[in-house]
Amino acid sequence: MLKTIILLTDTVQQQQPLANLLREHNRELAFCSALRASDLAAIDPDVLSEARLVSFANDAAISEKFLLQLGYGAYRFYATPAQYPGLPPAPDESDDDPRCFSVIAQSMTIWPDFKKVVGLETVTIPEGTIAAERERLVFSRLAHLFWRMSDMIAGGAADLPGIIDSGDSRQSSFATMN
User: Fold this and answer.
1) Does residue 169 come out as left (phi exceeding 0), alpha (psi in the -120 to 50 range) or beta?
2) Residues with Cβ < 8 Å from 49, sequence gap 6 or more?
3) Which of 85, 97, 99, 176 gives the lowest tally of CB atoms within 10 Å of its CB?
4) Cα separation of 106 and 112, whole Å?
5) CA pair distance 55, 35, nearest whole angstrom
6) For residues 107 and 12, what is the distance between their CA atoms, to the nearest angstrom?
7) 101 and 121 in contact (C-beta within 8 Å)?
8) pLDDT for 61-97, tens place per residue?
């Protein structure tokens, strides 16, 4: 039974709102907070077999050993420019001003062939939008995806369903365009 959600976030301020949202769907959940992969090492290993890791807007690399100990999987919520699907933009491409972003919820596994997208949305940034506003728009869409998926994240399913079945090109309701 899923008992614990491990929240790996970019900032401390993101922890409580995400935990509150998940708690609305499962009052019995306990939460562990982390900001870096090194924080995960402090979690009691006995907790992990009944835990799910949720990484929100955090790009920390998670060890294979840690992922293998999780009884309810690990999921990463992140945003990326659409022209770099699955990859962060190269540092030397800062003069590039992307207008379309994907916000993605993806399973985290040690086997790349078994990773699957469990949630997807896109956001198109109006031309002339300043960088701070672009960041706010993209983050808002990422938060919206998390909100829409919060019931499934807090539920007891050992594995969240992918948005596209193998051999099928239909998208579920968790894949939307703006």
Assistant:
1) alpha
2) 69, 70, 71
3) 85
4) 11
5) 9
6) 23
7) no
8) 999 999 999 999 999 999 998 865 555 555 555 546 7
